[in-house]
Design a protein that fits this description.
The chain is an alpha+beta fold. It contains nine helices and six strands, in the order αααβαβββααββααα. Helix 2 packs across helix 9 and helix 5 runs antiparallel to helix 8. The model has no long low-confidence stretch (mean pLDDT 92).
């Protein structure tokens, strides 16, 4: 079994309660914006890996929709034993972000103090993606991200575009244990 799909990697992340809870929260929030029923879309539309070997073990997880990585958190101590998170990156639709905020990307980039807006020309998103990068522990960044994402339209529109591309190549890396934990969180959120 590929390590990022293994129960062992899931249990390793789960043991770090703070990083685990933060990861579950980010992933569930993204999926809730992207899909009306994330549980029915698992593997067909989205996959999730845990402690992948991407960039020399630098990530806690990667969430993929169709053919594209859309959300990941980089570890502060890449490759080491410490699972403390550093920066997170999430992709959204550029056009929907401008629509949601009523502001151009250029103006948003100038006014953002804690979130970096990185233009992306990824073919899988047909050039309509922008990466939002922020330090995971920065409360000002969390507030800015909430304001930028708004109703979730920037995430939803990108997801719609990506699912039209079909299944991605990530099924073999999908961590079912981690996905179950995320879906359980989504269910708890819906019940609250």
């Amino acid at each position: 079994m590929i390590p990022s799909a293994s129960e062992e990697n899931f249990r390793r992340l789960e043991r770090d309660e703070e990083m685990f809870a933060g990861s579950i929260g980010l992933i569930s929030a993204y999926l809730e914006c992207a899909f009306s029923d994330p549980a029915s879309e698992e593997v067909e539309r989205w996959t999730l890996n845990c402690l992948p070997s991407t960039n020399r073990d630098a990530r806690l997880f990667t969430l993929n929709i169709g053919p594209m990585e859309v959300l990941f958190v980089e570890r502060a101590d890449a490759g080491g034993a410490d699972l403390t998170a550093g920066f997170m990156s999430l992709y959204v639709s550029r056009s929907a972000l401008e629509e949601e905020t009523g502001t151009s990307i250029e103006a948003l980039a100038q006014s953002a103090a804690a979130v970096e807006l990185v233009p992306s020309r990824l073919a899988s998103a047909d050039g309509d993606a922008i990466r939002l990068v922020a330090h995971i522990a920065d409360e000002a960044a969390a507030d800015e991200l909430d304001a930028l994402i708004g109703t979730g339209l920037p995430i939803r529109r990108l997801a719609e575009k990506l699912v039209m591309k079909g299944r991605g190549p990530y099924e073999q890396y999908h961590n079912r244990w981690f996905a179950v934990a995320v879906l359980d969180e989504i269910e708890r959120n819906a019940a609250a």
